[in-house]
Write a structure and sequence with these properties.
The relative contact order is 0.13. It contains 16 helices and 12 strands. Helix 12 links the parallel strand 10 (about 285) and strand 11. With about 375 residues, it is α/β, with parallel strands linked by helices. The strands form 2 sheets. It has a 6-stranded parallel β-sheet with strand order 3-2-1-4-5-6, with helices on both faces. Strands 9-8-7-10-11-12 form a 6-stranded parallel β-sheet, sandwiched between helices. It has 2 domains: about 1-175 and about 365-380, Rossmann fold (3-Layer(aba) Sandwich); about 180-360, Rossmann fold, CATH 3.40.50.2000. The protein has helices at about 15-25, 70-75, 75-85, 100-110, 130-145, 155-165, 180-190, 195-200, 220-235, 250-255, 275-280, 295-305, 315-320, 335-345, 350-360, 365-380, and strands at about 1-10, 30-35, 65, 90-95, 115-120, 150, 210-215, 240-245, 265-270, 285, 310, 325-330. The longest helix is centred in the middle third of the chain and has 15 residues, at about 130-145.
């Protein structure tokens, strides 16, 4: 049986369910995860909102994994000795930061162990100006060529690898995906109680609910979402907004929404397990980020059947949004264009058809596709 080792810094809300799925259902290859910056006694912290994420949907790990201590993470040779002991057939490194990942790439190549790179870098979100940009242009092509395979998270990441490296390595996508099945099932159970939940929020039964789930931080740009919604609401009396989240822009968010109290609900920061409840209420989801290489909340929304309106700064839009079918894309920071997208979406006659299209789109962005890519990577190296 082939053995795949994935090296990443910390567990995430979207990768852990994938690893559980593999542990429970996959029998033709072995998976091991090495976490290089996860010291269990220390809580994970999101620096943009200065709090730990509430990923309460993640149950105790049943997949094989190993957490490095801070001291171990400073000793690449010791880590390499551990890797040799478990004898992986292929090592997939998530990014080349922290530095340990780069050291391991060098050491693994010397040992003749095939390595792959998972990357979310995009040309849209990268800077190649100044002396740092010049250094990137010189060093990155050589570095990217070290890897035997590439595992981009989406089409923009794939384009980045090919254009920056100037060559093409074997590509096995490792997308940012979520547990589509769980989101669908949970949102459906909440959708059956939608009228009751709308009443609890003091929203009318015919409310057209616009949903935002984001950090109240400049990078994710909640203010453009708010301004776009306000413009939309001026011509649509059914328009209501649910804005989930928190962050350093808290006071500015509340100031912008002053006077719309009866049409706006702010749940605050909510645990991950409660997200399907809010997706089930919405007819439109908005992700306005200025710079987001992917944006898994778009996956979540579509898996729940909610068409999404995303900015050009959100990488997921280029793979998941089909204009007029699964949502719309608007220019980053353009609240007027966002308002027009909301008007267009609200005017579409068949909302159930939109829900079906969203869920159908996510059939092609499913954990099973990722698992198949892992199989291909493990098989490819034998040729």
């Amino acid at each position: 049986m082939k053995h795949l080792l994935i090296v990443q810094d910390k567990p995430t809300q979207f990768d852990v369910p994938l690893y559980h799925r593999i542990a429970e259902k996959v029998q033709d290859f072995q998976l091991n995860i090495l976490y290089t910056q996860y010291d269990r006694p220390a809580p994970l912290l999101d620096p943009e909102i200065a709090r730990s994420p509430q990923w309460d949907h993640i149950r105790d790990a049943i997949y094989t994994h190993h957490n490095l201590t801070k001291q171990q993470a400073k000793n690449p040779k010791e880590v390499m000795a551990w890797i040799r002991e478990i004898r992986p057939d292929y090592v997939l490194l998530s990014g080349y930061f922290p530095p340990l990942h780069r050291h391991l790439a060098v050491l693994l190549k010397k040992q003749g162990i095939p390595i792959g790179l998972r990357s979310d870098n995009t040309l849209l979100h990268s800077h190649f100006s100044g002396w740092k940009g010049f250094a990137k242009k010189i060093l990155l092509p050589r570095w990217l060529c070290r890897y035997d395979g590439w595992h981009p998270v989406g089409s923009l990441a794939r384009e980045y690898l090919i254009q920056v490296a100037g060559i093409q390595k074997p590509i096995f996508p490792f997308p940012y995906a979520v547990d589509n099945d769980w989101f669908f099932e949970q949102s459906e159970s909440y959708r059956e109680k939608r009228e009751e939940q709308l009443a609890a929020l003091k929203f009318p039964e015919d409310a057209f609910v616009v949903l935002g789930i984001l950090k109240w931080h400049e990078r994710e740009d909640p203010l453009t979402l708010i301004d776009g919604f306000i413009t939309f609401a001026q011509s649509n009396h059914q328009a209501h907004l649910v804005l989930v989240g928190d962050g350093p822009l808290r006071e500015e968010v509340k100031k912008r929404l002053a006077g719309l109290n009866d049409r706006v609900y702010l749940p605050g920061y909510v645990p991950y397990s409660q997200l399907p409840r809010w997706y089930a209420l919405a007819q439109a989801f908005v992700h306005p980020a200025l710079g987001e290489p992917w944006g898994v909340s778009v996956n979540e929304a579509l898996a729940c059947g909610v068409p999404s309106i995303v900015s050009t700064g959100v990488g997921a839009g280029y793979d998941l949004i089909e204009e007029g079918k699964t949502g719309f894309i608007f220019p980053t920071g353009d609240a007027g264009a966002l308002a027009q997208c909301l008007r267009t979406l609200a005017a579409l006659p068949d909302q159930e058809k939109l829900q079906t299209a969203c869920r159908e789109k996510m059939r092609h962005w499913h954990y099973d596709r990722t698992i198949e890519a892992f199989r291909e990577a493990l098989s490819w190296k034998r040729r």
